[in-house]
Amino acid sequence: MPPSAPRPSRRWGRRALLRRLSLGASLALAAALGLAACRPAQPPEPEIQFWTLDLAPRFNDYIRGVIAAWEQRNPGMRVRWTDLPWSSVERKLLAAVFARTAPDVVNLNPLFAANLASKGGLLPLDPLLPPDAAQTYLPKVWKAGQLPGPDGPPSQFAVPWYLTARITLANRDLLAKAGYSRPPLRWQEVPAYAEAVKRRTGRYALFVTVVPDDSAELLESLVQMDVRLLDGRQRAAFNSPEGRRAFAFWTDLYRRGLLPREVVSQGYRRAIELYQSGELAQVASGAEFLRSIQTNAPGIAAVTAPFPPLTGAGGEANVAVMNLAVPRQSRLPKEALSFALFLTDATNQLAFAEQARVLPSATGALDQLEAALAQERPQGRPDQLVRQARMLSAETLGQARVLVPASPGVKRLQAILYTQLQRAMLGQMGSDQALAAAEQEWNRYAEARWP
Question: Chain-wide mean pLDDT for the chain?
Answer without folding.
Answer: 90
